[in-house]
Amino acid sequence: MSVNGRGVERTVSPRRSLADFLREDLGLTGTHVGCEHGVCGACTVLVDDQTARSCLLFAAQLHDARVVTVEGLTPPEGLSALQAAFRDCHALQCGFCTPGMLAAAHELLAENADPTRDEIRDAIAGNLCMCTGYVNIVRAIELAARRLGASAAAVGAQGGAAPAPPRRE
Amino acid sequence: MLAGGQSLVPMLNMRLVRPARLVDINAVPGLADIRARDDGGLALGALTRHTALVTSRLVHEHAPLLAAAARHVGHRAIRNRGTLGGSLAHADPAAELPAALLALDARVVVAGPSGPRQIALDDFVLGALTTALAADEIVTEIDVPPARHAGWGFAEVARRAGDFALTGVAAVLHGNRGRCTAARLVAFGADERPVRLSAAEDALIGGARAEESAAVAALDCRPPADVHASADYRRHLVSVLTARVIGEALARLA
Amino acid sequence: MTRWVGAPLPRKEDARLLGGRGLYVDDVARPGLLHAAMLRSPHAHARIVAIDAAAAARRPGVHAVLTGADAAAVSRPIRPLIPTPVPLPDWCLAVDRVRYAGEAVAAVAAVDRATAEDALEQIRVEYEPLPAVVDPEAALRADSPLLYPELGTNVLWHDVFEYGDVAGAFARADGVLGERFGIQRYASTPLETFGAIAEHDAGLDTYTFWTNDQRPGLTLAILADSLGVPQSRLRLVTPDVGGAFGNKRRPAYLLVCALLARRAARPVKYLEDRLENLAALMHACNGVMDLELAYRADGTVLALRVRDVADEGKNLVSPTQHNLIKLGNIVNGYGIAAVSYEAYSVLTTKCPSGANRGIGKPFMCFAVERAMALLARRLGLDPAELRLRNYVGTGQMPYTTPPGAQYDSGDYAGTLRRALDRFDYPAAREAQARARREGRLLGIGIATSVEPAGTNLASYELVTGRRAASGSAEAAMVRVEPDGRVRASLGDPASGQGYETVVAQIVADELGVTPDDVHVERGFDSATTPWLYLSGNYSNKFSVTDVGAVLGAARAVRDKIRRIAAHRLEASAEDIELVDAVARVRGAPGRGVAMREIARTAYADVLGLPPGEPPGLEARHAYQNALAQPVGADRTVRSQLVFSNAAHCCLVEIDPRTGQVKIVRHVVVHDCGRELNPRLVEGMVHGSTVHGMGAALLEEFRYDADGQLLSATFMDYLKPTALDVPDIEVDRLEHPSPFTPLGAKGVGEGGAIPAPAAVANAVEDALAAYDVTVRSLPITPEQLWRWLVASKEAR
Question: In angstroms, what separates the C-alpha of C108 from chain A's closest C-alpha?
Fold first, then answer.
């Protein structure tokens, strides 16, 4: 499979969850485990560009799949536009839900460049946060959408390519 | 049998089920296709993901009730993996999709060593977590008949958006706004399996208005009681939601 | 000079947390790490007749097994924070009896968690079930089955406190309003579960723990005592913590890991899974409160009489905390002159209780604010007006309440007025009236509360009759490194509050550097962080104690920098100011010494130091807040130290057909004194308010009559999602405390205290035409439907 753009080949026990595989076999501990029954969303990653609960997938199922974790959503230097917006809006406190939130936000913004607050709340409704009360997370995603839209528009105005999915800063 | 895994894997993680073998059918080709049938109906592969039901143009054209029902299933990450066939085979009494399929008069195609067979939805889901699937069969396809000129409605009550419904109702009506000539009203979370609200259907076809028909809706349910809701409350909700979906469906009739 | 304190700085923590580069306990890698699983009782109450773990121990991949009997042979019981009347051995694993479903009876360490859980299935336990004790009122009765026969009762504490002339006030009153209120079990359930890694060095006979435990001072004392080793041979490290809210405490689990690690001669990790967390870690006390208000016709409340039964579950470590905290805070900002408070702290066969966010104050506030709403209804007074007539006034501060709490500063009336203004209360009432005419059920709820900070452990003397620990204190370290940059650490491990940022702000102001120049150590490390028994994260104490410790250490370093600079510049230390990493003579900006130079002198070129000044540029400081005093002869005590306050206004709409409640709008105006970082403060208000909303409408740990937890997963224990709560509007007043080092007060518990009452008052207000009284939480749609039906039938 590919994880964050890199080919990975391993032999795994059939019962190994994707979450445990990412965390323990690959050392990508940014994906967190909060409930192991698919409700809390802390373990959410992107599988073939779609969000999925890594606690409900077995690593063995993902032969040939493309997995992106929070580490893959982070540029080598600095923060992505989405992450910067989270920081600027104080959209995280303990940080445990954040990787899953970023995955959900990433999927939303890839499909909907100008979401309403209701659409944002709907998109993150599957990610529990016990710290922030969600208010600043919604603001952050809204801000990220605005900033990405503005930069895409700037690119467009310069005669550049069509608006792209969330880019790195 | 592992398809979406969104119901099965939590049970595995909690050690509630201990299968000796787990067979991953996600890579079986051809099981995820959605195609329009020549008769105007819809053929949905068993591995159709809930997200595909929500976004597919074909589903919106031919069976918008399914798209509406699918939107209530869990949250996006769950919908990305969960499958229509899986939801059917799991047969949770509070699940949206089996009920929507019953309202659409769908047929289930299953396949096993002795070949494929077609089963009407009502003969497929037999009880709580119980279906007509033999041990060596899987669901391969769900066929939805043409729903030309049908009005549809869908409503549920859940403690939170995305939770299993306390109860819900799906409606498919034929006729016109003035007069309903055929009705399929199906409640879920209201019995051991999705249940036709026959008394309410008969009332509606007999000329009763939405509220009057809804008043007898609960007669056909035997709702469970659990930590989230009592049977009485569920019965009440069935009535409220039946009125609501009848109204929606009538408004959609051409 | 406060360039940084008070600024809404983005957080230093965020870069690593956003990139998934935080280090939580489950992320810590240790060579040879084994994973532990715990076998837990299926019974709420049972004798352990026999336990046989031999087969499990032989299983391939299993390296150690521990039963309660094993643990009792090599350790001592967990020492309680608040001792029980008779010593009741609290072993880290149940020995002869289990007292709640989910109590741990054995543990296995294996090569991975799955193997460990497989091995649990091979442990044979023979139980002799005993009757469960589930209802606290039933548990009080003489005929109740007993959790501890040697105690002779399930009542861990019963006492009556009376302050002022209660009988006289009731006799004089124009009326008495009495009601019984109830609250459910719930918990803040941080997203990261609780756990630890224990490692034993056989050569040194030392133990190292990595854990997300939030009270390291207390836990180290317990571990040393239970393991029988001096504290100097223990090290406890807290990395990043995924939320705590009072929940992250279970020294027993660390002890189990330590014993397994010793047996296996390998480090052992135990992390709760979510099911274990919900069933067995900690619930806020459920309980029943009978509350009576004696009032004058104009609405002035003269006295309060309260009978409060707190259901502690099987809590031997810190029972009575909820009662004590409620007692100390019971007048909730009102000038009520006389108080009678009868406390029961009761054992039941349920999950142990604990200091969940608010520690009893949410229930206290629910009861008092509900009573005020009922009184307003009875007297035909506007609920805001009734409160305004009763608040302690700004001019009366500092004001001592009957139980001894001292309100230090604040404008309670002004806070409420601002909230009503932000809410546009008159317009909201008009909108409500219009909606009513359309058959829609809109409700407006008001609730206000005090929010104390700091806990004076001397208050436990009210329970135990003697003073063991006391006061409220914390320790910190500030060090200018040899390269001139700054490092700081704090004995209070953060769990999302942003301490690394706020501490950097405070130190930066004192030393004339930027927060970027100040590296604040993550979490806690007993080997390097200064700490006390009292160290830890609890009771909102940051502003009350931690700030003092950081300031003290920073100022000691600042003063030394000044002395060194003065010596270099041949000036007087009083004339040296620290600006932009330069120590310079005030009024002569050209004459300065860079911080880097100062550090070089302090650490390397030590002959350049002033005579008698030792080398180095580091200070450790421990600070206690002087407000903490021993218990008075009249049994008054400042159990908590300084008081923030808040007013919540809530607008709900109820679907009359289904009973579903939507919180349409929620306004919070709060006053936490000086806001050290307004951005962080606002975030706390949002998050804590949502905790309160969850308690009001969604969350409940329900038990059946056999003591089985029915809401055992996140599918049944319902947490608020982004779709369940609105944008919360926040505004502030700022009345600094005269009694904290920077004038800041508490903010962590915040909205968790009044939000449940505000929502409940709004729901009842929506149903005003139906004569419904909300007496308990949570309020479910089904309950609302039943009220509506019953009310219609009554007509």
Answer: 20
Specify the CATH number of the domain C286-400+407-457+630-794.
3.30.365.10
Residue with tokens 């500063």: C409
Task: Give the total number of structural domains in chain B.
Answer: 2
* SS3 per residue for C446-508: EEEEEEEEEECHHHHHHHHCCCCCCCCEEEEEEEECCCCCEEEEECCCCCCCCHHHHHHHHHH
Calculate the alpha carbon distances from C774 to C359, C379, C762 in Å: 22, 18, 10
Place of tokens 């620290």: C578
With CB atoms and an 8 Å threshold, state whether C117 touches B15.
yes
Q: Which two three-digit tokens encode residue B246? A: 């009848």
Closest chain B residue to the Cα of A127, Cα to Cα: B75
Asked if B22's CB is within 8 angstroms of A14's CB, the reply is: yes
- All structural domains of chain A with their residue ranges: 2-73, 81-157
Cβ contacts of A57 on chain B, cutoff 8 Å: 5, 9, 81
CA distance A36 to B14: 8
For residue C723, list chain B residues with Cβ-Cβ distance below 8 A: 160-162
Superfamily of domain C31-130+191-244+248-281: Aldehyde oxidase/xanthine dehydrogenase, a/b hammerhead (3.90.1170.50)
Q: Is residue B25 part of a domain?
A: no
CB of B231 less than 8 A from some CB of C: no
**Edge-to-edge strand list for the sheet holding C640-654:** C441-455, C640-654, C661-671, C728-733
β-pair type (C661-671, C728-733): parallel
If we measure between CA atoms, which residue out of C178, C171, C231 comes closest to residue C207?
Answer: C231
Identify all chain C residues contacting A19, using CB atoms and an 8 Å cutoff. none
DSSP code at position A22: I
- What is the 3-class SS of C164-210, one letter each residue? CCHHHHHHHCCEEEEEEEEECCCCCCCCCCCEEEEEEECCCCEEEEE
Residues 701-740 of C with CB under 8 A from B: 702, 710-711, 713, 715-716, 718, 720-721, 723-724
Q: What is the pLDDT along chain B (254 residues), one digit of tens a residue?
A: 999 999 999 999 999 999 999 999 999 999 999 999 999 899 999 999 999 999 999 999 999 999 999 999 999 999 999 999 999 999 999 999 999 999 999 999 999 999 999 999 999 999 999 999 999 999 999 999 987 789 999 999 999 999 999 999 999 999 987 789 999 999 999 999 999 999 999 999 999 999 999 999 999 999 999 989 999 999 999 999 999 999 999 999 86
pTM of the model: 0.97
Nearest to B75 among A36, A58, A125 (CB): A125
d(CA B221, CA B234) in angstroms, rounded, equals 9
- Cross-chain residue pair A96–C24, CB shorter than 8 Å: yes
Tell me if B75 and A55 make a contact (CB, 8 A cut-off). Answer: no
The rounded distance, in Å, linking the Cα atoms of C126 and C49 is 5
Under an 8 A CB cutoff, do A37 and C18 touch?
A: no
Identify the helix (H) or strand (E) that includes residue C624: strand C618-624
C-chain residues near A92 (CB < 8 A): 14, 17-18
Closest CA to C25 of C271, C257, C372: C271
Say if residue B97 is in the same domain as residue B58.
yes
For residue C424, report the phi and psi dihedrals to the nearest 5 degrees: 55, 60
Around Cβ B253, how many Cβ atoms within 10 Å?
A: 18
CB atoms within 10 A of CB B129: 14
Q: Can you tell me the distance from the alpha carbon of C322 to that of C315, in angstroms, rounded to the nearest whole number?
A: 12
Architecture of the domain whose range is A81-157 = Orthogonal Bundle (1.10)
| Tens of pLDDT, residues C715-749 | 999 999 999 999 999 999 999 999 999 999 999 99
Cα C575 → chain centroid: 43
Q: Contacts of residue C682 in chain A, CB cutoff 8 Å? A: 90
